């Protein structure tokens, strides 16, 4: 038997009110519509279901036999399907998977881990750094929940993005470096020994393209895939390195280094969180994105810096 589930709501409403007009009002439909629905129910079940008596619409034995299960079915649909599944961070378990570069891990992980420990103690964190094509696939199939950082390729109708804060690039040198001014000159930049980090971040690609367009050469003496070795090398040499300001500030505070402006204009770039539209309404990720925006938005950059240098 094929039956419109909305008809079962009419059955329950008549059973509750014992009156066809009152049932129609309860369901916010017209009395003729409720009457037509009752006629369809009677035809489907082969039973009158309700008979008119001085005390109202009295259920038949068939109605009494099915009304309990009918309520359970409708309650389950309203609770588990229509209302959807809620995410309770205090009780949730499992794992949040983020795509981040090593430099993004410097920025995000200390504060993120501490915050999740308080608000979602049963959740674990996994960080991955896939290739660009694998990143798209990972976000689409749910293996990656969010990409945090500078990902200019994730621009299409399939992906949402939300700006967190803007980054800028600066030079980092040892505190007693011969370059004394607040900003390198073009000549100093060209003559300096440079440490270059190739960690897969798109910001380094952006800087390379900018230097190439201006035909600005660097004397690269060390190329590494990690930022961790940069501060001690800078502290013991006259080399310079270009790094995002937030991370450079952390290096300067911990290792006695100094920040210098670049001799040419480099546009700021936005760090964002990115996710696939397939998961836009997922309560678990709605909660996570809200937390990320609250903890790492523009208004919290000072707090973020304090976390990094603590």
Distance between the termini: 68 Å
Which strands sit side by side, in order, in the main sheet?
4-3-5-12-6
Helix content: 40-55%
How many individual β-strands?
A: 12
Topology:
Elements: H1 5-17, H2 20-27, H3 31-45, E1 50-53, E2 56-59, H4 61-82, E3 94-99, H5 102-119, E4 123-128, H6 132-141, E5 146-149, E6 159-167, E7 169-174, H7 186-191, E8 193-197, H8 202-213, E9 219-224, H9 230-235, E10 240-244, H10 245-255, E11 257-260, E12 269-276, H11 283-296, H12 301-309
Parallel strand pairs: 3-4, 3-5, 8-9, 8-10
Antiparallel strand pairs: 1-2, 5-12, 6-12, 7-10, 7-11
Helix pairs in contact: 1-2, 1-3, 1-4, 2-3
Give a quick rundown of the structure:
By secondary structure, the chain is of the alpha/beta class.
